[in-house]
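Researcher: Please generate the 3D structure of the following complex. Treat every line as part of one assembly.
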Amino acid sequence: MRVAYQGESGAFSEAGAIEYFGPEITTLAQESFDRVFQAVNSQQCEAGFIPIENSRAGSIHQNYDLLAENELYITGEYYLRVRHCLIALPGTKITEIRRVISHPQALNQCRNSIKEFEIATSEPVYDTAGAVKLMASAKDTTVAAIASRRAAELYGMEILAEGIEDDPSNYTRFLVIKRQPVVVEKNAKTTLVFSLSNQPGALFKALSTFALRDIDLTKIESRPLVEKPWDYLFYIDLAGTIENPVVMRALENLREYATMLRVLGSYPRHILSAS
Amino acid sequence: MRVAYQGESGAFSEAGAIEYFGPEITTLAQESFDRVFQAVNSQQCEAGFIPIENSRAGSIHQNYDLLAENELYITGEYYLRVRHCLIALPGTKITEIRRVISHPQALNQCRNSIKEFEIATSEPVYDTAGAVKLMASAKDTTVAAIASRRAAELYGMEILAEGIEDDPSNYTRFLVIKRQPVVVEKNAKTTLVFSLSNQPGALFKALSTFALRDIDLTKIESRPLVEKPWDYLFYIDLAGTIENPVVMRALENLREYATMLRVLGSYPRHILSAS
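Model: Done. Output below.
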């Protein structure tokens, strides 16, 4: 099975895809999210694995746009805990390190650890896995990189410390996209996108279609439409599958208010274990 | 007046702060969002200017966390259209450019333009303004950078093309934070953060406190709490000020359901003009 993801080899997206699908898949690095969708559309890949929200950085609207534009289905979700590693040339001692390189967000997320390790200089580069690549080719034992365990393994580097992020509850939620939907019997989640015109109480009416049928929402997010500053797009995840007649009726009801409604897929719910 | 922002000199945050406050302010670059809050808390700066959401990348949860943790107030908002420039050494012709450097997101946002300009290579670096700095010091007329107009001016570089982003509706919303709240009479917006325990229909009840009082919501966003996977934080912006007795009563009502509620400030509403 071929799975497309955005980023360099060893990126957290690739690590997540392997955790989700298993080590036997072939991962294909893409330079942008658009390319991930293209790879699935063109049948070059059977699935795409895209980040949709991060606990610190929020929802990735660009991927919601691509979901709405493409005729693909969400068939799964996966919560990946973002565990950063301090990575160096094999045989390096932590006390030798004078400089650490990584993506600015990763450096920022490991600030306390960098201080504890007494590393004098932090230097931002464009990508976490790219930092390991740079460090590996420079062959300098005073430099370390911060990236995923997979990036260390890929370049044959040594992990000096693991789980060095200051906030242990940092995670990224990924979605699996395929050309065909899946049928889910139990513990399903359904993702919708819809728009409402600017009328007082429109959102309240829309939500009442779910509340009055005891359908639980697990995510709700509004997004202003720049072209029409008074109108909104809404992203909703609900507990249940579109195969369920009650959910179906709620969606029929919502269509009466919504100026646009797309069901992006029903899929098995993943719950992040508190490990 | 001294204003703290995150990023390098010439960053979009700095450009936005100058558009909002005027050219007479002194801007102070900070290496992280935490430091922006610290600079205001410690009275080193009178105000901070922080991005809170981007039309493509979504809400910046980290800044919501910092707003909830610090005893500061939102006193204003500003929508900045993200206009990218192609920047090179003075006297360079666009046809000479072989390589373009910038932050990966900026390169991605200008993909069509890069193709039109027939620039062969895109190279990611950690920051847009940092790309201009690198390009300026390399003194190579075959290299261009993508960044803000301000970054070009700061380093005395030439703007070969402006507004080269593929999506002209790309904007970032910024918030102004100060130690004291402001009083707003008209066209106010109020930002709240609250949490609800996981009970069926809890969100619907919470929203009804506003809907039944005809208070319009301009933003709603849920955020799962990783430590308690069934509980949620909610971010709400409403039209109106907390000075208004109807809004006050709605908030009192909400306190009956919410396990936590913080009002982050009432401030004048900014509407992005469709220029």
